[in-house]
Write a structure and sequence with these properties.
By secondary structure, the chain is of the alpha+beta class. The chain has five helices and 18 strands. Strands 12, 13, 14, 15, 16, 17 and 18 form a seven-stranded antiparallel β-sheet that branches. Strands 3, 4, 5, 6, 7 and 8 form a six-stranded mixed β-sheet that branches. It has a five-stranded mixed β-sheet with strand order 1-11-10-2-9. The longest helix has 11 residues.
């Protein structure tokens, strides 16, 4: 049974507030696990079924007619969840790293719809009915009065960020984004060179300052695009129907989730324009 998952609004910074709890935002794939009429099924937030892909969860001990909201993660040798490793395990014929479902909410329990119960009541039910195991665990959280300190700790360990949730919030029945659930990403930042601009589909080619390719920014605001194009004439080397090639002397600050083993940036975005671009 599939339920539209409640989505999160993004905020730039954490804040301390006793009305909230702070959860570690795990770096994986959102996944609903449903045991309905004795059958376990796994669904992504886009309603794609992954039951046959992740067969190791067929024997997870959850009550019948129950639905959990989870994050599917891959655990690396350091005990951290690793998004690149998860992608590799998804493609692999045989698992070489353990996968876990980390449950952070319970939506149905033995057929009862819990979504109109306050968050903390749902969390208590989750803790009462789920026995943690190797492949299913329950997320930990801190009181919102410690959210800023918790975020800094998460950032120090190179993890993705935190989610702040109102303690008395209901689960949105339509699966919409809600200001009751807020995500705060612990971005990394680095100064990079602009190597070019893709023309047919907008994109900004990025290079490290040593010239190695770093990835592509695929989204910029209208204002930032306007500024970028105003600087092209100073740095353009050549142009064809597909690409404007620049001289790698236009430097911008880029924020990103992390780096893949290849060195490419994951989800790079413009953070700021370096002030000495002249």
């Amino acid at each position: 049974m599939f339920i539209e998952p409640m989505l999160l609004e993004k905020v730039d910074k954490p804040f301390n507030d006793s009305r909230y709890v702070g959860e570690w935002k795990m770096d994986g794939w959102r996944m609903l696990i449903s045991k309905w009429d004795g059958k376990i099924r796994l669904y992504s937030r886009h309603k794609n079924e992954f039951t046959s892909v992740f067969k190791e969860f067929q024997n997870v001990a959850i009550p019948d007619n129950t639905i959990l909201d989870c994050e599917l993660i891959a655990v690396d040798e350091e005990g951290k969840c690793n998004f690149e490793l998860l992608q590799n395990q998804y493609r692999a014929k045989h698992r070489t790293a353990p996968l876990q479902l980390v449950a952070f909410d319970i939506l149905f329990y033995k057929g009862e719809d819990l979504r109109k119960k306050p968050l903390m009541e749902r969390k208590q039910i989750l803790a009462d009915v789920i026995e943690p195991s190797d492949n299913l665990v329950i997320t930990q959280y801190v009181d919102g009065t410690d959210a800023v300190q918790y975020f800094e700790l998460i950032k120090q360990h190179g993890l993705e960020g935190i989610v702040m949730k109102l303690k008395d919030s209901f689960y949105d029945l339509r699966g919409r984004r809600s200001s009751a659930w807020l995500k705060v990403i612990a971005y990394n930042t680095e100064f990079l060179a602009v190597g070019g601009i893709s023309k047919k589909k907008f994109g900004v080619y990025l290079s490290y300052l040593n010239g190695e390719y770093a990835g592509m920014i695929e989204f910029m605001s209208k204002e930032d695009r306007k500024k970028l194009y105003s600087l092209i004439s100073k740095h353009k080397v050549r142009e064809d129907e597909n690409k404007i090639t620049l001289d790698n002397k236009l430097i911008i600050e880029v924020k990103f989730r992390n780096k893949f083993k290849s060195g490419l940036l994951r989800l790079p975005l413009l953070s700021s324009w370096e002030t000495d671009n002249k």
